[in-house]
Automatic annotation (TrEMBL):
Signal peptide: none annotated. This is DUF3043 family protein. It comes from Nocardia fluminea. The keyword Nucleotide-binding does not apply. The chain crosses the membrane at residues 128-146, 152-172. The lineage of its organism: Bacteria, Bacillati, Actinomycetota, Actinomycetes, Mycobacteriales. Residues 1-88 are annotated as: Disordered. Residues 1-11, 76-88 have a biased composition (Basic and acidic residues). Keywords: Membrane, Transmembrane, Transmembrane helix.
Amino acid sequence: MNVKLFRRDESSTIDESVDPSVSDSEQAAATASTTPGKGRPTPKRREAEGKRRGPIAPAPLTAKEARARRKAVKGTKQDRKAAAADRRAAVQDRRARMLAGEDKYLLPRDQGPVRAYVRDLVDARRNLVGLFMPMALVLILSMFVAPGLQTIVTLAMLVMMVFMIIEGFVLGKIVSNRVIERFPDTTDTGFKLGWYAFVRASQIRKMRAPKPRVGPGDAV
């Protein structure tokens, strides 16, 4: 007689992998945490947006294909002309506002009420230093026309440079004192401000930028 030992009823078999002391909700959470694919990090926003935009177009294989892509990106010839005209108009408008003295469009060195006041002080004076460039040009041309005048021209230019240094020093002192009187709380004084006034005074009046707001001899 064949006797089967240690036989269990299939209906009474209990899954040993399930702990009866753990609740159903905890078992579901543990199962979800071990689900394949959940262990990877959450994709970044840039990567997600890149996937939504689709794959990147392959690089052009020929020069003709590259030119075609550039034309497609730039648009038609009329569009490019219109864009170029808009850029030129914007540049001209910005330059006009800068020459008019609008503080927003000025270079950093020209911005602020102190620098505007210094420009007015310089523009209201008749400065000898402003004649240096045209006089130097005349002297140099005369030296080429008459080489025998080289010694005289060199001496004249040295004398002009001495006068420039003296006038620049006097102009710097005048500008600094006037600025301190008008703006007692400013720190923009001394050599830096005097040099700014000297550079503007050495320029030809019509070539100064921003353009002068006052005429020679006007009260500032």
